[in-house]
Structures are given as structure tokens and as C-alpha cells.
Amino acid sequence: LLVGPPRLGHQPGSEPHTQRGLALDVLRPPQPQAGLLATVLLDVSNLELLHRTARTDPPAALALLPYATWCAFATALSSSIARRNPSR
User: Fold this and answer.
1) Model pTM?
2) 72/21: higher pLDDT
3) What are the CA-CA distances from residue 81 to residues 19, 27, 69, 88 (Å)?
4) What pLDDT score does 26 carry?
5) What residues have CB less than 8 Å from 41, skipping those under 6 apart?
6) SS3 for 11?
7) What is the pLDDT, as a whole number, of residue 20?
8) Which of 41, 48, 43, 32 lies closest to 72, judged by CA?
9) Residues 3-28: what's their mean pLDDT?
10) Per-residue DSSP letters for 63-74?
11) SS3 state at 86
12) Torsion over CA of 56, 39, 21 and 5, rounded to 10 degrees?
């Protein structure tokens, strides 16, 4: 009998779908405000994923923290870029 961590269940708009949508943003011309929105949405998705994971597997949630932190840093950078390029 194989025993593993509990599955979190699939929800529309969960991480894989978010990642796929963000990957398509790379193909468009630079749009700083759209990039900022994309990183904010990813941060929201990460927080939701961390919350769900923490309820079922706290060590896994801790393992996700560096990724969530890196994404938050990317949001700060995107915010700075969007602020400096308001007309695009």
C-alpha cells in the first residue's frame, strides 16, 4: 500500500492554468501594467495555494515559501517598471 500526501483537488484557475496564462504574456509586446497585473494575480494564486497546502501538509507549505517570496519580489520589480513607464 502506497501512502502519500493528501491531494488538494483540482480547482479551475489553479496554479497550472495560471502559469500557462502567464507564459502567453511573454509573447506580447511589453505592457508594464499588464505585467504587474499578471504578477499580482500570481501572488494571489500563490497565497491561496499556500493556505490550502498548509491545512493538509504544513511541511509542503513551508517548501513553497521560497517560490512565493520570489514571486512577491517579481511583483515589486514589475510595480517599479510600471510606475516608470506610465504611457505604455
Assistant:
1) 0.64
2) 72
3) 21, 18, 19, 11
4) 57
5) 18
6) coil
7) 55
8) 43
9) 55
10) HHHHHHHHHHHH
11) coil
12) -10
Cell of 36: 504587474
**Which single residue is written with the C-alpha cell 516608470?**
84
Residue type for position 14: S
Find the length of the chain: 88
Reported as a pLDDT band with limits 50, 70 and 90, residue 39 is: very high
CA distance 59 to 6: 13
Among residues 38, 41, 10, which one has the least CA distance to residue 24?
Answer: 38
Q: For cell 491545512, name the residue.
A: 55
Which amino acid, residue 77?
Answer: L
